[in-house]
């Protein structure tokens, strides 16, 4: 082998090695790890999805509440990081719109979207439902009476369905949405009016909505979503709007 050939081969070898090294150095994303489905943008920086920020997308962006809820972050975690319940009301979570959050244990309630709203009568006119506490009018604290309180809606619904065997009544229409959907108590319904409707969420109509709170054998409580949201008794055979709710 001539000296010229030797140096040419050596030159080409170094050229190849240099090219390989240059190619390797040209990929700034090779050692970059982007969390939470972030993607390295080719210049060594993470392009973070909505709801996350930081060099590696590891930090939650609490200005993007809906995106974080969509990514499975529970409302309690958001609250513990400074997001107020009021900022979560009307956001979509667990197939509905958040209208209540217990900041102690993180449980809460959502109302079904308007597309799942139904119309029906309360059912079993003249029958005082067994196991369902009557909340009479006038009363000093409708929302504080057993059967009308926050948390009573699901047990009210169970009692109605266990004793009223007429199809397509308000409680039945709620349960048709799924095993954990129910007709809200009068206090729960009022929270939907205050936290959702009064803030422009939920596409509620200017009508009466049924609660699961019974007045007596012939009457149950409705919430007006007009005229400042007053509550009143309404004959069980009347047809009113129904918005199912569920717990999370």
Textual characterization of the structure:
- The protein has a domain at 114-247.
- It has seven helices and 14 strands.
- The chain is 27% helix and 21% strand.
- The protein has 248 residues and is an alpha+beta fold.
- The strands form five sheets. The protein has a five-stranded antiparallel sheet with strand order 5-6-7-14-9. A three-stranded antiparallel sheet has the order 10-11-12. The chain has a two-stranded antiparallel ribbon with strand order 1-2.
What is the topology?
Blueprint: H1 3-25, E1 39-40, E2 46-47, E3 52-53, E4 59-60, H2 65-70, H3 75-80, H4 85-88, E5 92-93, E6 96-101, E7 108-111, E8 118-121, H5 153-163, H6 170-175, E9 181-182, H7 186-196, E10 208-216, E11 219-224, E12 231-235, E13 239-242, E14 245-247
Antiparallel strand pairs: 1-2, 3-4, 5-6, 6-7, 7-14, 8-13, 9-14, 10-11, 11-12
The strand count comes to 14
| Stretches with pLDDT under 50, minimum 5 residues | none
End-to-end Cα distance: 81 Å
Mean pLDDT: 91
Order of helix and strand elements from N to C terminus? HEEEEHHHEEEEHHEHEEEEE
Bin the helical content: 25-40%
Instruction: Tell me what portion of residues adopts beta-strand conformation.
Output: 15-25%
General shape: elongated
| Count of separate DSSP helical elements | 7
Biggest sheet: strand arrangement = 5-6-7-14-9
């Amino acid at each position: 082998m001539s000296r010229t050939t030797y140096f040419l081969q050596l030159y080409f070898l170094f050229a190849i090695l240099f090219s390989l090294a240059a190619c390797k150095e040209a990929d700034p994303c090779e050692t970059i790890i982007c969390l939470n489905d972030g993607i390295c943008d080719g210049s060594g920086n993470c392009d973070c999805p909505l709801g996350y920020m930081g060099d590696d997308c590891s930090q939650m962006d609490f200005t993007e509440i809906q995106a974080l809820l969509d990514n499975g972050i529970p409302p309690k975690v958001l609250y513990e990081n400074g997001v107020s319940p009021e900022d979560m009301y009307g956001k979509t979570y667990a197939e509905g719109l958040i209208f209540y959050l217990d900041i102690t244990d993180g449980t809460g309630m959502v109302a079904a979207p308007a597309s799942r709203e139904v119309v029906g009568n309360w059912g079993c006119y003249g029958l005082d439902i067994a196991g369902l506490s009557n909340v009479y009018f006038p009363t000093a604290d409708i929302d504080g009476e057993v059967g009308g309180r926050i948390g009573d809606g699901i047990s009210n619904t169970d009692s109605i369905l266990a004793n009223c065997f007429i199809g397509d009544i308000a409680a039945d229409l709620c349960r048709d949405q799924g095993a954990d959907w129910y007709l809200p108590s009068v206090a729960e319904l009022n929270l939907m009016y205050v936290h959702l409707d009064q803030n422009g969420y939920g596409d509620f109509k200017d009508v009466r909505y049924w609660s699961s709170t019974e007045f007596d054998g012939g009457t149950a409580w409705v919430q007006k979503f007009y005229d400042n949201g007053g509550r009143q008794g309404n004959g069980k055979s009347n047809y009113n709007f129904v918005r199912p709710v569920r717990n999370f």
